[in-house]
Structure formats: structure tokens, C-alpha cells
Q: What sequence folds into this?
């Protein structure tokens, strides 16, 4: 059902936790399954220096957020905003169709964290 | 959002894994979120001697299955079949309404494992 990349990011998720002084925090709840995702970002000179996520969500949500945070760290904010749940799924090498909503959770939480930063600045 | 019992069963789930020679194996996929749950049971003299679960599901699914397997181990098959997702949620001290479908996953996978055993015997 799940490929090796998805399993790796599920079993050894990157960037789990919370940041001490986040510049932006985003929370998003899935209307499909009710799961919540929190993403926090550290931003300096418009570059995403660090990102962490926290969820009670399923394996696909964990794998998607692990991959998505890896994708945005080191990127300018503008480029990070171009990431969609489709590009997350592509990087993961695919997700079963029923689990697409889990990658949307990661996508939306990241965008909401960046908007939180933008509003504060 | 989640009480201490739910968090405990999520952080330290009981009975995770697979049995070596299961007497029954049940798999159930949630139509709500797409998550899957596998439950295996060891049955001797109509008593559930052991049970293990495996899931890619969310924290609520993990907590529900951890609690549900604890509830059936040591019970006669007939009593185990009386367990519903409502009794699992009661034992957990409650789940948010949006997460009720995750406890259904545990309930159905257990029943399907017992039916698998019954069909083989
Ligand atoms: S959201 Fe799928 S099992 Fe909980």
C-alpha cells in the first residue's frame, strides 16, 4: 500500500515537535477525518530557517508533513508557498488516493504558518 | 482535545504488532478516512488469549485499538463480540465526535478477526 519513501518518513519522521520562538504558527483541521496538524516556522531574511510539525494524524499525515517540512526548510518564503499537496505527494513517490486528504493537511498547515508570519510582519 | 487515558494509549500503545500463529486475522478499512487496521487473535478453549493490532491510522485509532485489545484479552469470544465502538470510547473516557470513526476501525477489525477464526473452526 505504501512505498519505501512514505514508510521511511512515517517510521522516522523529520522535524517533529515545536519551535521555541516560532515566527509563524499554523493549525489546520481536516474536514475529512477530523485530524489536526500544527506547523511552526522560523523565518530570517525571508528564508525558512526551520520548521516543525505536531499531529495526532495518521501515518500518511506524518509522512506528508515530514516530507513537506524538509521541502520548505532553506527555501525563500515565496518558493515555499508554491508547494502544494500534489508536489508533496510527488516527492513521496505517491500516496493511495484515499490518503490524499492527509497531504492537504500538511500543505494547509504550512501555508497557514507562513500567513501567520506575514500578518505579524 | 484528548484526555489522559487517550494520550496514554496513544503514546504507549498496548498490543502493537503481529502474532506468530494467529487463529484469526481481521482487516478493516475506514470509508471515512481510508485508514486500515489489522487485528490478530489467539484463541484457546473459546477464550481470547492474545491480540495484536497494526495500523497506519491516526492517534485515535491507535488509542482505540490499544484499549480494545486490552478489553478482549482474557474474555470468552462471545463476550468479546459484545464490545462496540461505544464501549471502547467509554473505556477511553471519551473521544472528540470527529474521531468516532477511528474507534469503529478497532471495533470492526476485532469482529472480523473473530469471524475469521469462527470460519476456520
Ligand atoms: S482518521 Fe483514520 S483512523 Fe483516525
A:
Amino acid at each position: 500500500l505504501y512505498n519505501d519513501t512514505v514508510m521511511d518518513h512515517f517510521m522516522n519522521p523529520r522535524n517533529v515537535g515545536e519551535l521555541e520562538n516560532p515566527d509563524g504558527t499554523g493549525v489546520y483541521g481536516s474536514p475529512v477525518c477530523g485530524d489536526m496538524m500544527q506547523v511552526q516556522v522560523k523565518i530570517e531574511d525571508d528564508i525558512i530557517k526551520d520548521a516543525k510539525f505536531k499531529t495526532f494524524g495518521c501515518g500518511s499525515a506524518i509522512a506528508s508533513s515530514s516530507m513537506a517540512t524538509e521541502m520548505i526548510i532553506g527555501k525563500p518564503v515565496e518558493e515555499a508557498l508554491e508547494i502544494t499537496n500534489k508536489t508533496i505527494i510527488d516527492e513521496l513517490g505517491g500516496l493511495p488516493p484515499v490518503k490524499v486528504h492527509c497531504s492537504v493537511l500538511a500543505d494547509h498547515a504550512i501555508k497557514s504558518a507562513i500567513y501567520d508570519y506575514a500578518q505579524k510582519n
Summary: DSSP finds five helices and three strands in chain A. Chain A touches chain B through 19 residues (CB under 8 Å). The CA atoms of residues 9 and 63 of chain A lie 5 Å apart.
